[in-house]
Fold:
Amino acid sequence: MAKVAVLGFGVVGGGTVELIYKNKEKIEKSAGKSIDVKYILDLRDFPDSPFADKVVHDINVILNDDEVTLVAECMGGVNPAYDFVKGCLERGKSVATSNKELVAQKGAELLKIAKEKNCNFFFEASVGGAIPIIRPMHQCLAANEITSVSGILNGTTNFILTKMINENMKFDDALKMAQQLGYAEADPTADVEGLDACRKICILSSLAFGKHVYPDSVHTEGITKITPEDIEYAENWGGSVKLIGTVKKLDNGKILPLVAPHFVCSENPISSVSDVFNAVMVCGDAIDRAMFYGRGAGKFPTASAVVADIIDAAKADGTSISQVWEDAGTQDFIDDYSNCRTRMYIRLSGADKSAVEKAFEDVEFLARENAPSGEVAFVTNEMRECDIDEKLSAVGGEVLGKIRLLEV
Ligand code: HSE
Structure:
């Protein structure tokens, strides 16, 4: 018999409790033991819930109950989740979390505690919701040297871009629709400015390369500056605009994690991932490439991953099988994005093609219907970002759009 405490009775916490009871027989068969939720921690009371009698308000009730060996943390945010999770791990209770902010900020430390205390810190739900990606990278792809991980890691922004692409909506209108449908929060900053995707690429980078990558070290751009004109040029170029979280191993031994909108060519399966779906492509020296696709958010898709972690933790019982990555004490294994090479789409006003050709030499000019005179759009060859910026200042004109191309 394993007793579970669920921290946070919001959308994901509620889904976790419901799923445990909905599929109890199947879940217990997988775990090899009976599983029961003993406590639900929340500030609020839920008098109308069938689980009202399990609700407690004090974390100490859970910390001091030795019968509770498994904890699902679905609160979100670093505080107080960090103190609560740390307290659980220090007492040998395994934790499954959906909290990407917590893992991105404190993952190395919490994994170390779990290892020392012979318990587990699992976070399959923190990246890609329902998509199995953490465990496949840790286990199934363990024999590979990972060379890159790239994908669509945020459902809200993918929904907004899909509306801009398919229905010619402007960013503000698409965002409003995402809010009305409950995808985007009232304060959409974390999604639209790329912070949520940044946390997820930090987790995938740390997992792939064994050293903790902190969010502050990742150059992050959101989608707020993307316009219908950029979308039209992307289509005419032969692809679409997607917010991509990516990390790759460079020839100099460093890594480059990055979150930014990218032109993705239509041959790349990532370009056809639409609405709130996520997709992650992992490249390794043995596998070539493997792609993972599914719902990146939502009550039951996310709960599916949390409960799977609870099952694994129940099976592991007293053995630490979590992955471990170290806090390297420095972030100097991460290269400066401006020194890295990329191809770039650029849209200018008040410029002329001959100045562009003179500065950039070999470029691919793009066209769109009804472009105003003086608008010039083109795609550069591969070069360092700092060199692109230098050449752009020689061209003159106003930069209206600047979007990287995703390597095939
Ligand atoms: N806000 C996130 C998204 C939720 O839109 O993908 C899941 O992490």
About this structure: The radius of gyration is 23 Å.
